[in-house]
Amino acid sequence: MIVVLTGAPGAGKGTQADMLAEKIGLKKLSTGDALRKHVKEGTDIGKIAGAIMERGELVPDDVLFKILKAELDGVKADQIVLLDGYPRNLSQAETLQTLKDRHPVKAAIHLDVDRSALISRLSGRRVCGSCGATYHVSTNPSKKEGICDKCGGELAQRKDDKPESVAVRLDVFEKTTRPILEFYGARGLYKQVKGEGLPSEIYERLSKLIKAI
Questions:
Q1: pLDDT tens digit sequence for 58-83
Q2: Annotated catalytic residue within 69, 88, 106, 205
Q3: Residue 100 class from Cβ within 10 Å (0-12 exposed, 13-18 middle, 19+ buried)?
Q4: Is 121 a catalytic residue?
């Protein structure tokens, strides 16, 4: 079965998905990670997606779904799959329902975080250009300013993490995600969890909810 984990950029979906996968044995499935894997491995669908990305275009919904389905094909029907970052629009949510016989969505959990907190989280984020490790200037700084603890690479702020860009991203998220929440709400699947506090506190809220499903 599938548990959808939603939340605005900076809500902490990736962190919580990793913790849930490690501590209670869920199968974390990130479409972003799956996409990169298929491109790197040169699978048939990965070649198609890679060509699209090389042109600077967004990977369309039908290609993303094929990648998602390929990943789910290797998952047992009784295993809990935590979807991180999918669906991102109403069309994707509707298409996901076509897999309900084998992989039904049992809950859509939304990590709710105040907008001002999201802007603070994202604008303070710094990413290593070499290994991709993520830091935060106030809540999780590197030991040496501007240098990655893991590989010694240079840390930088992503262009879309600048405050003005973050505001636009949050507006887009709100516009595209609200219909998804309403979609699952109409089916009695929508759950909301407070996404503020220590990661361990948020994890406890999420794990308690998932174990009760």
A1: 899 999 999 999 999 888 878 899 99
A2: 88
A3: exposed
A4: no
Could you tell me the CATH number of the domain that includes residue 18? 3.40.50.300
The per-residue pLDDT for range 173-194, each reduced to its tens digit, is 889 888 999 999 999 999 999 9
Domain assignment present for 54: no
Contact in structure between 124 and 139 (CB atoms under 8 Å)? yes
- What global pTM score does this model have? 0.82
Tell me, yes or no, whether 108 lies in a domain. yes
| DSSP summary character for residue 60 | P
Active-site residue identified among 23, 100, 144, 158: 158
Tell whether 130 is covered by a domain. no
Number of domains in the chain: 1
The DSSP letter of residue 26 is: -
Region of 85 please: left (phi>0), alpha (psi -120 to 50) or beta. Answer: left
Our answer to whether residue 158 is catalytic in this structure is yes
Enclosing domain of residue 110? 2-26+80-114+163-211
